[in-house]
Design goal:
single chain; 217 residues; alpha+beta; 9 helices; 7 strands; globular
Length: 217
């Protein structure tokens, strides 16, 4: 079967409670370094996400197997580019701060099984988020992105300089390049964002404005 035909068999849909065990196992495979630190969703976290904001939780299924997932919540950040941590943005992992009247969709995570990354799963999940932001008339999507290969360069350059070199094509970073290719803009570095050995706990503040956003009068 061709790769293009395989892509048509990927189904993106909202998560259900029955999906939770598979998604927990998926995260362990997708984020082995972070799983070792205990920085992945637990079943009770995913249960809370589905209960609080079911429309914002997506998974990708291929031939009956879940190969990707992402969790999202709605917030308002004041000021709009406020420095924050992943834990703060995600309401202590339980989305306690989800605000249905907020103006921003927060991309809490996206995970794809490494054996299926050639099928465009992450882009499909982000497309689902973009459609949700439009449907909810949210002003933007934001998130904190990993600096996947920064640990190889940390002794010689700052996180900001690393991002600039990635943008110029001088350094390869699969996470940041994926985000930039999907329309996100780099805003600034978020230090101490998340316990992540590869990023040395840094993250990129990324933003995608909703071109169809209508300001309420």
């Amino acid at each position: 079967m061709s790769e293009s035909m395989e892509k048509t068999q990927v189904i993106v849909r909202n998560m259900t409670p029955a999906d939770i065990p598979e998604i927990v196992e998926l995260q362990k495979v997708a984020f082995p370094y972070m799983a070792a630190e205990g920085v992945i969703w637990k079943p009770e976290h995913l249960e809370a996400h589905i209960k609080i904001f079911p429309e914002g939780q997506f998974c990708a299924e291929y031939k009956g197997v879940i190969i990707g997932s992402c969790s999202s919540l709605i917030i308002t950040l004041t000021p709009e580019y406020k420095e924050h941590t992943w834990k703060e943005a995600c309401g202590d992992s339980f989305f306690k701060n989800h605000d249905p009247n907020g103006d921003t969709l927060y991309a809490a995570d996206v995970s794809v099984h490494p054996d299926y990354r050639r099928l465009g799963v992450a882009s499909r999940l982000y497309d689902a988020r973009k459609s949700l932001a439009i449907a909810k008339n949210l002003r933007r999507i934001i998130g904190g992105g990993r600096l996947f290969n920064y640990w190889d360069y940390a002794k010689t350059i700052t996180p900001y300089d690393y991002v600039m070199k990635v943008k110029k094509g001088e350094i390869q970073d699969p996470v940041l390049m994926f985000q930039l290719n999907n329309g996100f803009n780099f805003i600034k570095i978020l230090p101490n964002y998340l316990k992540d050995a590869r990023s040395l706990n840094n993250a990129t503040f990324i933003e995608l404005k909703n071109p169809q956003y209508r300001r309420n009068s």
